[in-house]
């Protein structure tokens, strides 16, 4: 999928990273101590492309971030402070576990903040009624063996293969993109070429107030 959103039928808007409720107390480790998952995901985005995400996917990231900042982290801090008051920290299991959990939460907060900073929201409903495959489409296709599969093309932060949610940078999504209902497309795999017939293309209905 080329990087140009307009050329590929994307209709999205850039978003600002969520940092209004963050402060340095939440990030005590060096910013250079990047989460390996963040690095891997960043490498998955083609050079020059945006980090596309659906509104639902963006909301899920934001909800998790707020849960960590407003609920989980304050609770762990409370436990750590309580455990620290109980004496020798070197043999204090509550204190040791709490500090470890705090580091995990801080890493996750940094990771989610970076994902929101780089996110570019694309609303699939703008293509409602269209039979051409773009980001956010739910596509049913049949292979040569007659096996039908249904996938939804989403952002890399929304990937969930068990639920048929595939990344827009995946080989299958790239092969499907821009094809139409009834088209037969070719998917290149390590085992060779495979022809897939597109059975249906669906998008969510626009939400009206």
Structure explained in plain terms:
By secondary structure, this protein is of the alpha/beta class. The chain has two domains: 12-122, Transcription elongation factor, GreA/GreB, N-terminal domain (Helix Hairpins, Orthogonal Bundle), CATH 1.10.287; 125-202, Chitinase A, domain 3 (Roll). The chain is built from four helices and eight strands. It has helices at residues 36-44, 55-84, 93-118, 171-176, and strands spanning 12-14, 51-53, 119-122, 138-142, 148-154, 165-167, 184-189, 192-202. The strands form two sheets. It has a five-stranded mixed sheet. The chain has a three-stranded mixed sheet with strand order 1-3-2. A hairpin with a 5-residue loop joins β4 (138-142) and β5 (148-154). α2 (55-84) packs antiparallel against α3 (93-118). The longest helix has 30 residues, at 55-84. The chain is elongated and about 70 Å long. It starts with 11 loop residues before the first strand and ends in a 7-residue tail after the last strand.
């Amino acid at each position: 999928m080329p990087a140009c959103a307009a050329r590929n039928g994307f209709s999205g808007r850039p978003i600002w990273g969520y940092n209004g409720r963050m402060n340095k107390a939440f990030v005590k480790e060096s910013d250079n101590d990047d989460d390996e998952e963040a690095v891997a995901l960043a490498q998955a985005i083609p050079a020059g492309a945006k980090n596309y995400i659906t509104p639902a996917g963006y909301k899920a990231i934001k909800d998790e971030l707020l849960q960590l900042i407003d609920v989980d982290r304050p609770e762990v801090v409370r436990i750590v402070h309580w455990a620290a008051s109980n004496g020798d920290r070197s043999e204090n299991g509550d204190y040791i576990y709490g500090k470890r959990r705090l580091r995990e939460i801080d890493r996750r907060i940094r990771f989610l903040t970076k994902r929101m900073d780089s996110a570019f929201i694309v609303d699939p409903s703008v293509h409602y009624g269209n039979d051409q495959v773009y980001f956010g489409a739910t596509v049913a296709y049949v292979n040569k063996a007659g096996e039908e599969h249904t996938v939804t093309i989403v952002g890399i932060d929304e990937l969930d293969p068990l639920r048929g949610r595939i990344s827009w940078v995946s080989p299958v999504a790239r092969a499907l993109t821009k094809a139409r209902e009834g088209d037969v497309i070719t998917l290149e795999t390590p085992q060779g070429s495979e022809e897939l017939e597109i059975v249906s293309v669906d998008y969510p209905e626009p939400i009206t107030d």
